[in-house]
Amino acid sequence: MSATEWSKQEKEIARRAFKAAYSRECMAIAESVRKMASEINDPIGLWQLHDFLTEKRKETDEKYDFRYSVLPLVFARLLCEGWIKQEDLAGISEQKLQEIRKAAEFMRER
Questions:
Q1: Domain that includes residue 61, residue range
Q2: Residue 80: inside a domain, yes or no?
Q3: What is the pTM for the complete model shown?
Q4: In the chain, N or C: fewer CB atoms in 10 Å?
Q5: Is-contact 96 72, C-beta < 8 A?
Q6: Residue 66 included in any domain
């Protein structure tokens, strides 16, 4: 199977890893929001919280793209950022894992 074709099992593994990463990141954002909200003392703080959420929404919408053609790059970024571990991708073909690791290594060097 080529690096661009995903088996049924790989698709299931990818979906689980993708959902787990998204959930982890959203929970981290929620924790930041709780902390920021508890420290709001004036209207400026309220709008700073709004700006923070707007930026995080934009970042996550751009980052979490589940098209199979770009998943190796998405997973590489999520590895670099710590939202997934290589174990989350166990069961995906070695060819795809190599592509993901290579892209993650490149991203870390930048």
A1: 8-109
A2: yes
A3: 0.91
A4: C
A5: yes
A6: yes
